[in-house]
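Hey,

The postdoc asked me to send both predictions to you directly instead of through the lab channel. I've kept everything plain text so nothing gets mangled by the mail client. Protein one:
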Amino acid sequence: MSLLVVLGVIAVAQAVFVVLLGLFVVARRERLLQRGRRVRQGRARLNIPLARWLTGAGSLKPVVESLSDLPRDAALAAASELHDVRVPVAQRAALGAAMRGERWTRWALAGATSWRWWRRLDAARAYGIVGTPADAKPLEALLEDEHPAVRLAATEALTAVADPALVRSAVAFYPAEPLAVRLFTSNTLRISWRLAETPLLEFLGDPAAEGHDLAAWLALAESLHLPSLRPTITALVSHADPEVRAAAVRALRRYPHAQSVEAVRSLLDDPQDFVRAASAQALGALRAAESLPQLERGLADGAWWVRFRCALSLALLGEPGRAALRRARQSPDQFARDMAVMTSGLSEGAVLELADV
C-alpha cells in the first residue's frame, strides 16, 4: 500500500469523524433545547394548580401530577423550590407526603448509597422534602458524608426527619464543618430548636471540650437565642481560652439579662484586645447604661478596635453616651479625641450598621 493511499484513508476517516461529531453536537443541542422547553412549559403549568391548592380552591393531586411530568432531576429542583420558598411551613408536610411515592422521588432516594456524590446530594435534597422520622438511618450516613455539599443538604433535612439522635450528631459535628454548612445548620436548628437545646447544653457544659469547639458551639448558641442556655454561656466568660471568652460575650449580647451585663462588663479589662472589643460591642447591644464610665475609659485603649467598639457602644446609649463622646473630643488623650471625632457625627442608622447589633 502506497503512502498516498494511507494518507487518503486517514483523511477520509478524519472527515467521517468530523461529520459524525458535528451531527452529535447538533443532535445534542436540539435535545437540550427540547428538554429546556419541556421544563419551562411544565413549570408554567405547575403554577395554576399550586395557586389553587395554596388558596384552598383545589387539591394537591394536580400539583404532584404536574411535577411528575417533568424530567426527574427537574422535578426534584422544582419540588425543592416549592418546599423551601413557595409553600408555607404548615403545608410542607402534606406536600412531602403526597410526593413520597412518585417516580422521581424514588429515583432521588435511591441515590443515597451511590458512589457519585451528586446522586447522594439529590438523595439528601429529597429527604428534606419527603423525609419522615423513619428515614433517620439513611440520613445519618448523609450527615457524615465526605462531601460538604451532601452534608449541607442533609442538615436541611433535619427539620423534616426530626430525629433527636440526628440533631445531636449535627450539633456534635458543628465545630468541624465549613462555614457554609454551619450557616445552614444554624438556620435549620432555629426550626428544630427543641431537639438542639439538650445536646447544646451538654456540649457547652463539657469541661473536657476543646476551646475551638466551645467557641463554635457558642456561635450556634448565639444564633438560637434559647433562654435556657444563658447560665451556661455566662459561666464560660471566665474560661482560660480567650477565644472562648470572646465567643461567650458575643453570644451574651443576644441574651439580655442583668447577669449577662455583669459578665460582659468583667471582660472590658481583659488582657486580650479582641476580647475587650467583643465585650464593648456586647455592652452596646445590651444597652448597658451602667457601663458608660468603662466604655468612656475604653476610648483611650491601646487597641484601635477596642476604641472603635467603645465609641459605637457609647453612641448606642443615647444622649448620655453622645455626651461622653463630646467630652472625649476635648480629651488630652489623642486616641480618645480622634475616635470621638470620627464617631460622634455618625447618624443613628450608621451607628447601628457599624455596631452590628
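Protein two:
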Amino acid sequence: MKTIKNSLALSFIFLGTIFSNAQQISILANAGMQGLSYNIDDGNNTLKLGARIGVGYTYFLNYHLAIITGLELGTYSNKTTLNNSVYSSDEIDTDGELFEFRVKTKGYKEENQFNALSIPLMLQYRTIGDTQFYFNGGGRIFLPFGQKSTITMNQLQLTGFYSDVNAELFDIPNHGFETFDNWKSTSNTKLNTAFALSAETGLSFELDDNIRLYTGIYIDYGLNDMQKKQQIKANISLINYNDAGYNDKQFNSILKTNRITDQTKLMAYGIQLKLEFGPRYRGRGCSCY
C-alpha cells in the first residue's frame, strides 16, 4: 500500500510539473475543405466543407520555440459522383445458373461523412513582439468514428446477362431485375486510424498581457490508407444481388468496393483562429512572447 501511495504521489508531482511548464492553454476553431481524398474509376471525388474545434497546451523551449499538443474534434466529408456506367458481378440465380449481374446508374452521388478525434504534436517557431509571425510543423493522429455514406441516384437499373443464350433480362422483380427512380440509400463503413503531416502558419496579436489571438491557415496531409481492405470482397458490386427484392441497406458505399484506384487519405486545409491564454515566457529575467 505504501508503495502504491508513493507511486501515485510521484505521478501527481510529475503531471503537475508538466502542466506548470505548459505556460499556454489555447482554444481553436477552423473551417475548410476536409475529408477523404482518392481517385476513382469512372467518376470524380471532391472534398467538402468541414470544421474542427479543440484545446491545446504549449510548452516553451525558449523565446522562439515551443512544443504544442492537445485534443481536437472535427467533421470531415467528401462527395463522389459516378458517370452513367455499368458495374457488374458474377452471381447465381434461384435456378442455380451463373449470370452477370449488371448495375446501371444515372446521376450517382455519394456523400461520405465522419467525425474524428485528433491529437497534434507540433513544433512552433514564433517571432517576438506584440504582433508575431508563427509557423507550426509536425503531425496529427486522427481517430475516426461515426462514418455515414448517403447515396442518391436519378435512376438505378438492375439487370441480368446470361452469356450462354446472349440475353439480358430486364424488369423481372421475382428474379431480382428491377428499375428504381430517385433511389436513396445509406451505408456505414469502418475507417482506419489516420496519420498526417500538419502545418499551420500566420500572425498572432496581443490582446492583453495574457491573451493572444492567432489567425492563419492550416493543412493536414494524410500518410496512410483509411480504407479497410478487409471490407472489400473480390468483384463486389455496388448493390448485393437479391431475387427477393431490394432495400437501402443492401447498397455498398464506394469505400467498400474496389472502384478506388489509389489510397484513401485524409486531406484538410483552410483557415484557423486560436486564442491562447497564459503568462508570457520568462527566461533570464526577461518577460516576453
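Summary for protein two, as requested: Confidence is low (pLDDT under 50) at residues 10-22.

Thanks,
C.
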